[in-house]
Design a protein that fits this description.
GO terms for molecular function: cytoskeletal motor activity. Residues 224-330 form the Flagellar motor switch protein FliG C-terminal domain. Its main location: other. It is a peripheral membrane protein. The chain starts with a helix and ends in a 16-residue tail after the last helix. It folds into 4 domains: 14-78, no CATH class; 115-195, Annexin V, domain 1; 200-241, Single alpha-helices involved in coiled-coils or other helix-helix interfaces, CATH 1.20.5; 242-334, Annexin V, domain 1 (Orthogonal Bundle), CATH 1.10.220. It is mostly helical and 341 residues long. It is flat and about 75 Å long. Helix 7 (122-129) packs across helix 9 and helix 13 packs antiparallel against helix 14 (231-241). It has helices at 4-11, 14-25, 27-34, 39-51, 57-93, 95-109, 122-129, 134-142, 146-155, 158-170, 176-186, 204-211, 216-229, 231-241, 252-261, 264-270, 276-284, 288-299, 306-325, and strands at residues 173-174, 199-200. 69% of the residues lie in helices and 1% in strands. A two-stranded antiparallel sheet has the order 1-2.
Length: 341
């Protein structure tokens, strides 16, 4: 008897399978699933459902079987990791079909290396990796959530903090072979996931996300050390550390101090192209008369170059950074900067 799963996989597109699945589930159950989908996805599936003239019982059974197998595979993957899921599916479905399911599932879920590490307590993970080579630590941290990576970075020695931060910042693409080798070292204690394609992680934006979440002392130590070792990289990191739109995170007192130091022309130019919540925050911390004058100046300014707007915004960001360095204002940084009244 032909395998219904294989036949369906060959004959139908994924969108057609989804349509058949919803038809099989019925209106009530389909409506519940639709609540968790994006509008464009719902529109595509609805059009596909409408175009289905006839669905055979065999197709329904095959699609339901495939859906069930994919759902179970995802459950195995999330609970026990890639190797566990592979072993269970091979015993249940055979090696060829198991490999097919795993390959499609890892691609659709964009499974990343060290996925299990993101479920590990940062303190436990720190104890495990703190004696590893800085490049190994950097590779692992590049795949962690920024909050988790920030906790680990803050807890490393000062010498290692700057070294690891630098290695994350200059990291680009890492080959699967290197990732597998690192994972093989860790596999005795921690489960891990492997991708088949080159993966992009690290880079300046990655380390900025981490530094924005560490405490100010840790950040300053890392930046000062990096400035000596790599001034150009440090300047690029500093430019991204605090963007103009982040002024919404300033408390009213701090923002008022910033506004006293900012040139009026720079402020009007900076607000020319900015989200409403940013402009509202600024206007709120000015006198009514000053806010009205600023709004009028922005309205009658006319077209401006994006480059000029960005330069003006950067000038204001520099004012904020200078005031912060002097200790005159405080910029909220992650979970470790709660204020005490």
């Amino acid at each position: 008897m032909p395998d219904m799963y294989d036949e369906t996989e060959q004959e139908l597109t994924n969108q057609q399978k989804a349509a058949i699945l919803f038809i099989t589930l019925g209106p009530e159950n389909s409506a519940k699933v639709f609540q968790h989908m994006a509008d464009d996805e719902i529109e595509k599936i609805t059009l596909e459902i409408a175009s289905q003239k006839q669905v055979t019982p065999r197709q329904k059974a095959a699609v339901l079987s495939e859906f069930y197998q994919m759902a179970m595979a995802k459950n195995y993957l999330s609970s026990g990791g890639l190797e566990y899921a592979q072993n269970v599916l091979e015993k249940a479905l055979g090696s060829e079909k198991a490999a097919s399911i795993i390959n499609r599932l890892t691609t659709s879920l964009q499974v990343r290396p060290f996925d299990f590490l993101r479920k590990t307590d940062p303190a436990q993970l720190l104890n495990f990796i703190q004696n590893e080579h800085p490049q190994t630590i950097a590779l692992i941290m590049a795949y962690l959530d920024p909050d988790q990576a920030a906790t680990i970075l803050s807890s490393l020695s000062q010498e290692r903090q700057a070294e690891v931060a630098k290695r994350i910042a200059i990291m680009d693409r890492t080959s699967p072979e290197v990732i597998r080798e690192v994972e093989r070292v860790l596999e005795r204690k921690l489960s891990s996931l492997v991708t088949q394609d080159f993966t992009t992680a690290g880079g300046v934006k990655a380390i900025v996300e981490v530094l924005n979440r560490v405490d100010r002392t840790t950040e300053k130590t890392i930046i000062e050390t990096l400035e000596v070792d790599n001034p150009e990289l440090t300047e690029e990191i500093k430019r991204l550390m605090f963007v103009f739109e982040d002024i919404v995170m300033l408390d009213d007192r701090s923002l008022q101090m910033v506004l006293r130091e900012v040139d009026g022309k720079d402020l009007s130019l900076a607000l020319k192209a900015t989200p409403k919540e940013v402009a509202s925050k600024v206007f709120k911390n000015m006198s009514t008369r000053a806010a009205d004058m600023l709004k009028e100046e922005i309205e009658f300014m006319g077209p401006v170059k994006i480059r000029d707007v960005e330069e003006a915004q950067q000038k204001i960001v520099n004012v904020i950074r200078n005031l912060e360095d002097k200790g005159e204002i405080v910029v909220a940084r992650g979970k470790g900067d709660e204020m005490i009244a």
